[in-house]
Write a structure and sequence with these properties.
Length: 214
């Protein structure tokens, strides 16, 4: 699974480099470039969908019910939510599913409920809400989104979801050094769940693009 995620990110990075090297980077809608990069990183870093209740420590996916489809997993989680409508973790889990499927309006509603129903909202919840608003509206980090990211990083200065969105936004708007700084901070966290190969490849790509622009 990790290998497939890494290969997906490398392929996307190669496509972006192809556009840039042919001086056509500006012809590709920056919003879509940001979307592909960030969603790839979210898939790598997030817990994803799983049939059991969302774990607070955000560990890897397990599938006790077998390899379910997206629709089956979402249906399972929604059935669980009907039985426990005030479970903030379930709302967050369903929101992640909508986010990864590009259903930003539904994801935003779920994350609002998750924040409201959680006694002490987590950095991941704030970062997820920020990511959803980012794609649902302007694909620009405005004041509301920045406030959510600030809250996430206040709770966890090395939060991968928040730093990934920040880094990717810098990357596709050609602010490569700022992107490198954000990715480097993820590496500096020394957390065991960090995909260091992907982050290092991203940093090296940003460095190459900086050199190419000089």
């Amino acid at each position: 699974m990790i290998i497939m995620m890494l290969l997906s990110f490398v392929i996307i990075a190669a496509v972006l480099w192809w556009f840039y090297s042919r001086d056509k980077a500006t012809s590709l809608n920056p919003a879509w470039m940001i979307f592909f990069v960030v969603i790839s990183m979210i898939v790598i870093f997030s817990s994803g969908l799983r049939p059991e209740k969302f774990a607070a420590n955000n560990k890897a996916i397990t599938e006790p019910l077998g390899p379910l489809s997206y629709s089956d997993k979402m249906r399972y989680l929604e059935d669980q939510l009907k039985a426990s409508p005030n479970d903030g973790d379930l709302w967050f889990e369903i929101g992640q599913g909508y986010l990864l499927n590009g259903e930003f309006s539904n994801a935003s509603i779920c994350f609002d409920y998750a924040l409201r129903l959680t006694d002490e909202p987590t950095a991941n919840q704030y970062a997820a809400k920020a990511t959803t608003l980012y794609y649902a509206h302007s694909q620009i980090i405005d004041e509301e989104i920045q406030a959510l990211l600030d809250k996430a990083l206040e709770l966890d200065e090395y939060n991968q979801a928040a730093l990934t969105l920040i880094a990717s936004d810098h990357f596709v708007t050609f602010r490569y050094q700022k992107a490198i700084n954000a990715w480097q901070k993820i590496l500096d966290s020394e957390r065991v769940d960090v995909d260091r190969i992907t982050i290092i490849n991203s940093i090296n790509q940003a460095k190459q693009l900086m050199q190419a622009r000089r």
